[in-house]
């Protein structure tokens, strides 16, 4: 029975798309690595919890087959921000060139924005009361 599970997972790995733009963060690559580590001995691997293994396979197969996308269709192809799926994919791909502002980091950027301005840039305050 383990051989059947192994072949099913291999078939799922073949069908699962790879996203070359997400090197190191691709779900398809991660899935392949997990299957390889779980089935180290190939078809001869003994599975400690076959029910959990079958449940995991069925869940991944439903995701890969877009079952939930078909069951719950979206009214629009944008999110609440108004960004389209293609724009999200571009933003998440990691291929965009980072600006100097992006490279600074959140803490540095916040400190620069909210710190007191240098004396020559700040308007003069009146000390009269």
What can you tell me about this protein's structure?
This protein is an all-alpha fold and 129 residues long. Helix content is 53%, strand content 0%. The protein has a domain at 2-73. The longest helix has 15 residues, at 50-64. The N and C termini lie far apart (88 Å). The relative contact order is 0.10.
Percent in helix: 40-55%
Biggest pleated sheet: none
What overall form do the CA principal axes indicate?
elongated
Distance between the termini: 88 Å
Parts with pLDDT < 50 across at least 5 consecutive residues = none
* Global structural class: mainly alpha
Individual helix count: 7
Give the overall pLDDT as a whole number.
79
Strand proportion: under 5%
- Reading the helices and strands in chain order gives HHHHHHH
Number of strand elements? 0
Radius of gyration: 25 Å
Which helices and strands appear, and what pairs or packs with what?
Layout: H1 2-15, H2 27-38, H3 50-64, H4 67-71, H5 85-93, H6 100-104, H7 106-114
Helix pairs in contact: 1-2, 1-3
Main location: mitochondrion
Protein name: Mitochondrial nucleoid factor 1
Subcellular location: Mitochondrion matrix, Mitochondrion nucleoid
Key words describing this protein structure:
129 residues, mainly alpha
Write a short abstract of this structure.
The chain has about 130 residues and is mainly α.
